[in-house]
Amino acid sequence: MRILIVRLSSLGDIVHAAPSLADIRRALPGAVVDWVVEEAFVPLVEGLAGVERVVPIALRRWRSRIFRSWGDVAAFRRVLREQRYDAVIDLQGLVKSAVVARWAQLAPGGARHGLANRTDGAAYEPLARLAYAHRVAMPARIHVVDRSRRLAAEALGYVVDGPPRVQWRLPTDAAVDSSWGNGRSVLLVHGSAKPVKLVPTGFWIDLGKALAAEGCAVLLAWGTPVERERAIEIAAGIGAAASVPERLTLGPLLAAIARLRGCIGLDTGLTHIAATLGLPTVQVFIEQKAWRAGIYWQPQTVVLQADDGALPAVAQVMAAWRRACRDPVPAAAGGA
Question: What pLDDT is attached to residue 307?
Fold first, then answer.
C-alpha cells in the first residue's frame, strides 16, 4: 500500500501532523508513505522516521514570479505522478493542498481523503472538499494533532491507539556548530512570525538571568535579521551566560536542538520540535490556543497559557521549567 500525505507548511503544523505518520507506521507496518511539503521544510520531513519519498513543492516561490513558473509547476506534477497512490490524505484542508492532492495519481481503487468541515481555530477552505472522495467530519473543538490522527485513521481504516508520538531519525554523529552550546544549554525561542505572540525583551532577560542563576547556559534563537537584533539585545541584558548562535538550516538545526538541555519558548515551530524531541520544554501561549496546539502528551513538556494576554510571571515559568526537568525523556523520543 502506498500513501501520500499532503501537508505543505508550516514548521509547527508539520510537527503537529507528524504523529499521524507514526500511527500509520504502527497500524500498517508494510505501507510506504510519501509526503508533499514546501521546499523550505524538506529537511524537517526527511528527519521523520517512516517517510519514503519527500516531494518538494515551491508554491511560495511560484507566487513571487507567477508568470515565469509554469514550467516549474509542470515539472512538479511530473515528479508527483511518478507514483500511484492507494490513498492520498490532505491533512491541511486548504484549496492549495486540495489541488496538490488532486494532481496526485491514484492506483486502481485508490481514493483522496480530506476534512469535511472547519474546526475551531484552524484554517480551512470549504472548496477543498471538492477534491476528496472521502470527507471526514470532525468535532468543532479538537486538538490539531488529534484532528490529523483521526483523519488518517478514518482514511486508512485503523483505530487511533495510545498517545501521539513523533518518531525522529536524526543522525547521532552529526556535526553540530560549536555556537549551539551543549547539554547544559537552554534554548529561548523568543521570535514569532505573528506579532501578537511576541512579548517584551525584559521578560526574556529576567528569565535568562533566572536560568543562569541555576547554572544553565542560555541560547537565543533567531531566524530573521529583526529577531537577531532582538536576540543580541536580550543576550546583552542577561550577561555572560547568554549567547546568540549561528543561524542553521533545518537539518543541522534539528541535530543541534536534540543535544541541548531544554527549551523555553513561544507557540512556534522550534518549541514544538524541542518538545517532540524529548527535551524538557516549557511552551508559553499568548493567544488562547494552548488547548489546540500544546504538546500535551509529553511528560517533560509543560504548557502555560497566558491569562487574557497577561504574561505568566518569570517565577511561574521557572517553576514549570523545574517540573519539566524532573522526569525528562531521552532525546529523539519515539526512536526510529
Answer: 87
CB 59 within 8 A of CB 8: yes
Cell numbers standing for residue 292: 489546540
DSSP H or E run through 3: strand 2-6
Q: Are 228 and 150 in contact, with CB atoms under 8 Å apart? A: no
Regions of the chain where pLDDT drops below 70: 67, 173, 309, 327-336
Residues 274-287 pLDDT 10s: 999 999 999 999 99
pTM of the model: 0.94
Three-state secondary structure of 168-193: ECCCCCCCCCHHHCCCCEEEEECCCC
Residue 187's DSSP bridge partners are 219, 263
Residue given cell 503537529 in the structure block: 16
What strand order describes the sheet that includes 217-220? 242-243, 217-220, 185-189, 262-266, 281-285, 301-305
